[in-house]
Amino acid sequence: MADVRIWPNADELAAQAADFIISAARDAIAARGRFTLVFTGGSTPERTYALLAQPHMAAQIDWAKCFLFWGDERFVPSGDERSNYGMAWRTLLEPIRASVPMLNIWPMPTEVRGPNQGADLYADALAQFFGLPPHADPPSFDLVLLGLGDDGHVASLFPGHPTLDVTDRWVVSSPSGTLPPSLDRITLTFPVLNAARQVLFLVSGSGKADAVQDVLEGQPLVQQRPAVGVRPTIGSVTWLLDRAAASGLSEQAYAPVV
Ligand code: 6PG
């Protein structure tokens, strides 16, 4: 059964997520000398990123040994308000820019000819960073952060899309799903998500309750609720939910933490 932790509200969830990331960074750096982190986009993680940017929190991470990637990106310039990289820059990376070398930050390329080219370039960048031949077994990130769409999508892997079936590529382009913003995307694929050492879901709000209940207690197909496709081969999955997002779960299954 997945490790599911329920918190009273979005602020508590964000605080727990920040602590989880700090702990994962410390463990990875102690074990392997570096921490490879995949940021999620959307709005839920903003509180967490802003907390990590606070000096007393940022000081707990050796950012020079952290290497930062994205799980998906909207195909817009980085300065666009809808950019996932732009959101992470505004909330976390700009405030801590003195601590994290720009060479450690690996945004998905969106100022190229198109999302297909951006996906290919990102896959090449991952191969170069991890010292892997392209199309080899996927790299193992230390921690992959994921949100959950109201429709059960993760990253930009949307219900009913052929991207859900990709097994031979690390990064693909995707047309928009049915939820806003309606933009072409670049996304990591399930093979990469499932090679992670740790996956952390950050899910907040009543709009997620149906998808959360389906994914954690139902038997949906990946095509219906893509989040059920997140099944790391050796890694762990932790869900941090607020009470609103967990409101559809059966009481006895997951004792609220507080
Ligand atoms: C994106 C995200 C996406 C997000 C979910 C949840 O580019 O939109 O990566 O997968 O995590 O849609 O988004 P919210 O946190 O805004 O609800």
- Which strand order do you get reading across the main beta sheet? 1-9-8-5-2-3
End-to-end distance, in Å?
Answer: 20 Å
| Low-confidence runs | none
Largest sheet: 6 strands, parallel
The helix-and-strand class reads alpha/beta
Give structural notes:
The protein is an alpha/beta fold and 258 residues long. The protein has seven helices and nine strands. Helix 7 links the parallel strand 8 and strand 9. Helix 1 (10-32) packs across helix 2 and helix 2 (46-53) packs parallel to helix 4. The longest helix is centred in the first third of the chain and has 23 residues, at 10-32. The mean pLDDT is 96. The chain binds 6-phosphogluconic acid. 6-phosphogluconic acid is lined by residues 40-44, 72, 74, 84, 147-149, 153-156.
Q: Quick gist of this model?
A:
The chain has 258 residues and is α/β, with parallel strands linked by helices. The protein is built from seven helices and nine strands.
Main attributes?
258 residues; alpha/beta; 7 helices; three-stranded antiparallel beta sheet; six-stranded parallel beta sheet; single chain; binds 6-phosphogluconic acid
Reconstruct the topology from this structure.
Layout: E1 3-7, H1 10-32, E2 35-39, H2 46-53, H3 55-58, E3 66-70, E4 72-74, H4 84-93, H5 115-130, E5 143-146, E6 171-174, E7 185-188, H6 190-193, E8 198-203, H7 209-217, E9 236-242
Parallel strand pairs: 1-9, 2-3, 2-5, 5-8, 8-9
Antiparallel strand pairs: 4-7, 6-7
Helix pairs in contact: 1-2, 2-4
Bound molecules: 6-phosphogluconic acid.
6-phosphogluconic acid binds near residues 41, 43 and 154.
